[in-house]
């Protein structure tokens, strides 16, 4: 990914020699572009050396967004290190394992989706081993096991308020956590669709194992009736989950009601993660060490965000960013603005193949999407949603996703067989999302 983004930076430098320079007039108050004011200006090419110098400038200009990413990495590392989420899920699945398909499949999909949205990370793909075991217990194939775990966590990840959503909002200069209401509603709609699709597939395979998308019957030979390990309910694990989800919900609500921004949100996450660590009897020193490791793990992501800022700086200094925006938006000017939003969504849907990291992709595409949204008079909050959903959906499809490859390896499912399962759902979900984004554009949704 680093080489790819550095390549984009050098390409951006070369394009400043080739693309005519131009600018839109900007609103002095909002700094947004004024549609219909594009005009050519003097060429100001940026040589590759100066483009490389922009890396430092891009990092300093992206300091706010980089800071919240690093801090969140530390806070979530502390929460996840308690093992509360895994403990709660293991207990819930143990209790559910003897229930029928009609009960266990919906509950597992909802559990994994919601927990992924509010407290999960890329490591959730490891739960695939549990999903496969539960599926085998019910006489289902490994794809059904992935549907109950990895598939569900991917859907929840797409609706999360944290991570790449916060990064995109920071780059778009949109209030952090704003828009949580509609995004939460859409999260539960996506989860409901995932439940229906997983149920349909599981009942289909249960009725006729020959209709399994595994392509053979080898999976039937490996199915066993062994029980999952017994897990006892630990109320502290549930309390940690409530505190984690509550911290995100509180930040979202207070952001709208009281104008809370990064300083307040950092303080809330610091308190929440510390309390979660103490509830699991971690010492202050252990909490601090875990927090530091979490921050370290996000260091490279933060650098990628700064590198994305360098690309934006280069395009801006070369006065070609507005020319590119004008070229893209001209064909869309006579259409409804919602078409422009749908275009941005599908662009990110495809571009995610090249930069699978949500934060990294936000750093590259949001500086370009912002002026496109301004030129088409689309609220930046809507543009953020177009990015978030476009980026997240194809994580469960493209083989450039490390978590997908890990889940497939655990389940023993070939990629082509998994694509047969997930692609129809993704296409239906993406069409519905296009309608949803069109609606948000039509009502001028700001998320506030």
Q: Would you tell me the overall average pLDDT?
A: 87
User: Main sheet, how many strands, which sense, barrel?
Assistant: 2 strands, antiparallel
Order of helices and strands: HEEHHHHHHHHHHHHHHHHHHHH
- Bin the strand percentage: under 5%
Helical fraction: over 70%
Quaternary structure of the protein: single chain
Strand arrangement in the largest pleated sheet = 1-2
Distance between the termini: 34 Å
Number of helical regions: 21
Number of strands: 2
Radius of gyration from CA coordinates: 23 Å
Residue stretches low in confidence (pLDDT < 50, at least 5 long) are none
Helix and strand content put the structural class at mainly alpha
Based on Cα principal axes, name the global outline. Answer: globular
3D structure, described in words:
The chain has 448 residues and is an all-alpha fold. Helices cover 71% and strands 1% of the residues. It has a two-stranded antiparallel ribbon with strand order 1-2. α17 (337-351) packs parallel to α19. It is globular.
Features:
single chain, mainly alpha, 2 strands, globular, two-stranded antiparallel ribbon
Could you outline the blueprint of secondary structure elements for this entry?
Blueprint: H1 2-18, E1 22-23, E2 39-40, H2 48-61, H3 63-81, H4 84-96, H5 101-119, H6 128-137, H7 142-148, H8 150-158, H9 164-171, H10 180-207, H11 218-222, H12 235-257, H13 262-279, H14 284-297, H15 299-317, H16 321-329, H17 337-351, H18 358-375, H19 380-393, H20 402-411, H21 415-442
Antiparallel strand pairs: 1-2
Helix pairs in contact: 1-2, 1-15, 2-15, 3-9, 3-13, 3-14, 3-15, 4-5, 4-12, 5-8, 5-10, 6-7, 8-10, 8-19, 9-18, 9-19, 12-13, 15-18, 16-18, 17-18, 17-19, 17-21, 18-19, 19-21
